[in-house]
Design a protein that fits this description.
There is one protein chain. The protein is an alpha/beta fold. It has a single domain, classed as Flavodoxin domain (Rossmann fold, 3-Layer(aba) Sandwich). The chain contains 7 helices and 5 strands. It has helices at 3-9, 25-34, 52-61, 84-98, 137-149, 159-179, 189-202; strands at 10-14, 38-40, 65-69, 107-112, 131-132. It has a 5-stranded parallel sheet with strand order 2-1-3-4-5, sandwiched between helices. α2 (25-34) links the parallel β1 and β2.
Length: 206
């Protein structure tokens, strides 16, 4: 794909990559792909020769759009919070504020699980329009679809229609994984996106 087109359709995903987020992440990736955009995140490639932060800088620089879920801020067993998501959001906003003309055209969707909860731990975002997903895959899909609509010239399927497609995909996912000898419980990011593409193509919805 041409670099300029990839930039326009690239959606950087900034979210937790753990078991607690497992029910939301596939819905997020599916909604992005079903709307004709390209989900991208730090899990898309592994290179021991590149530091994680440099990889994040590069991927963020290659995406005009970004979805940032800052809903996971609980303390771990050592009573320390997870700051990766706010850090990556800060990098994205910094690129938008201080980058060149193309970078200043960036747009982002910031998610939390409850309205206004973020004001208790990241009050500098008080002037931003955050959206609450209530830990619901359906609501994630509705929010992502409506947000992406503003960056698409073509009319997109409605959010409920995208959610229905996602439910059908989830129903078919075990068989898809079996056909390709993949473990559904430990599905790498690139395999997830490839299976989404195969399912959308087979159902005539690309």
């Amino acid at each position: 794909m041409h670099a300029a087109l990839r930039y326009e359709t690239g959606v950087f995903i900034n979210c937790p990559f753990d078991s607690d987020y497992a029910k939301l992440f596939p819905a997020l990736a599916f909604a992005i792909r079903a709307c004709g955009f390209d989900p991208r995140c730090a899990l898309e490639e592994s290179d021991s020769g590149e530091s994680r932060i440099e990889k994040l800088y590069r991927i963020i620089g290659e995406c005009r759009l970004g979805i940032h879920d800052i809903s996971r801020t609980e303390l771990n067993r050592k009573r320390l919070p997870r700051f990766n998501m706010p850090l990556e959001l800060g990098v994205f906003l910094g690129a938008k504020r201080f980058g060149d003309a193309r970078q200043r055209d960036k747009r982002c969707l910031i998610l939390d699980r409850k309205p206004y909860r973020f004001q208790q731990f990241c009050s500098d975002l008080a002037g931003n329009d955050l959206r609450a997903h209530d830990n619901s895959p359906r609501k994630v899909i509705l929010l992502v679809r409506d947000w992406l609509r503003d960056s698409k010239k073509d009319i997109l399927p409605g959010g409920e229609a995208v959610f229905e497609r996602y439910c059908a995909f989830r129903k078919d996912l075990p068989l898809l994984c079996a056909l390709h000898s993949l473990n559904e419980e430990a599905l790498p990011f690139n395999d997830l996106v490839a299976l989404i593409d195969k399912w959308l193509a087979a159902s005539g919805q690309t």
